[in-house]
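Predict the 3D structure for this chain.
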Amino acid sequence: MDEQLKQIGQRLKGLRDVLDLTAEEVAETIGIDVEKYLKIEEGESDITISKLMTIAHKYGVSTEELIFAEAPHMKSYCVVRKGQGMSIERTKAYKYQSLVGGFVNHKADVFIVTVEPKPGATTIYKNAHPGQEFNLVLEGSMELYIGGKTMVLEEGDSIYFDSSKPHGMLAKGDKPVKFLAFTVE
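Done. Predicted structure below.
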């Protein structure tokens, strides 16, 4: 994962250089201080998928280009076979598999997200990003926090919400949770 962080940081720095942006401008776009943003560019700090999506949408590139260094090519349709989507492990606990990564100018980001349980964890990391989000639990169960409310979603449950509200989740129990995440601005 350390190598992935460095590569994402290099792509972010490259994007900033190409667009003649300051680190301050990009940091402001994702709502963090410039020192933290520069650590991300150096590969010394992680960045959430939602912040990468915000950068991609703001500056007209695909999220996949920032994450995977691969531009989408499909224009009519894009088939992703079971287990074959572009995949990235953001932290040891989170794995994202893109289901739309090959489609040019897709309007939504769709991932299968797998989250490992954290025994004894009580703190939920929260993030927010523009738009709306749909989650469908495929396996396991999750504790989901949205804008001050906490709920449990089980296999087959779904939720649609305003993703500009602070939100986050934990895998419940001792098994990973796998869910479909669909976001659109």
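The mean pLDDT is 85.
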